[in-house]
Amino acid sequence: MSQEAQLPPVADGRVPEPDADSADPHAEIVRLREHNADLQERLHAHPAISLAQGVLMERYRLPAPEASFALLREASQRFNIKLHTLADAVVRTPRRPDGPVRAEDRARTAPPPLPGLRTAGADRTHQGEVLSAALHRVLDITGAGMGNVQLAEGGRLRMVRHSGLAREFTSFFAFVDSPTTSCAQAAEDRRQVTVRDVATADVFDEGSRSVILRAGSRACHSVPLVNRAGVPIGMASSHHERPLAGFTRAQLQALETTGLMVGRWLSWHRHTVVRDALDHLHATATAER
Fold this sequence. Notes:
There is one protein chain. By secondary structure, the protein is an alpha+beta fold. It has two domains: about 5-105 and about 270-289, no CATH class; about 125-270, 2-Layer Sandwich (Beta-Lactamase), CATH 3.30.450.40. Helix content is about 50%, strand content about 15%. The protein has ten helices and six strands. The protein has a six-stranded antiparallel beta sheet, sandwiched between helices. α2 (about 25-60) crosses α4 (about 85-90), α4 (about 85-90) packs across α10 and α5 packs antiparallel against α9. The longest helix is centred in the N-terminal third of the chain and has 36 residues, at about 25-60. The model is unreliable at about 1-15 (pLDDT under 50).
């Protein structure tokens, strides 16, 4: 089945006209905003996976996009990795002339410890569980009821976990590649960023500001998830119902520690679990030729 058959249809790209008979104009406006944000999310989702399909077609001389998508989907499901994460890894990882190193021949390391994170299960290799626990930890430290986690993929931030945020928000910020957000600024500056009042902060463009305010967020704080080299490979952000005065030194230190811990875990995951998925994909593709 092709990528287009798997992802929600974009239709003709037009936003439907408001229903003239609607008894609740406000509800209709909300519906149209959500439709527009959802459309933008779909339009951003297609190119990344399509690029990975093209790489696989060229790399393994596959006959059609359907064949490359089937490889991606099977490896994604087998190793419990999101399709976007695997597609990004395919594009980022050059093919070795002699093929990849087999998983059993690579040096194996255990996942880094995650003190303070309440994972739902004992398996510390599950990215979804770890990122959910990381988000809850950030919300606990900041005292916020809303927040999200993003991963750096393909030169932009992709939202992978969220809590307490409206659908319009999660669709609008599903992919962030503009510098006019606090999370993008935190990623660029490699430091924590606090926006004390969304309504007056210079960092946002007006479109982003409006979506954030409608979600009930008047302040936010972004924490880079960094690898050992200090490079952000993800972002965790809290959103607050009222303007912020700031955080204590102890809170900022706890957030920095969380960012370092989760960033190192993400780096481990990329170099072990995702690499295993790439090796499996390679073995499957070459066996079918």
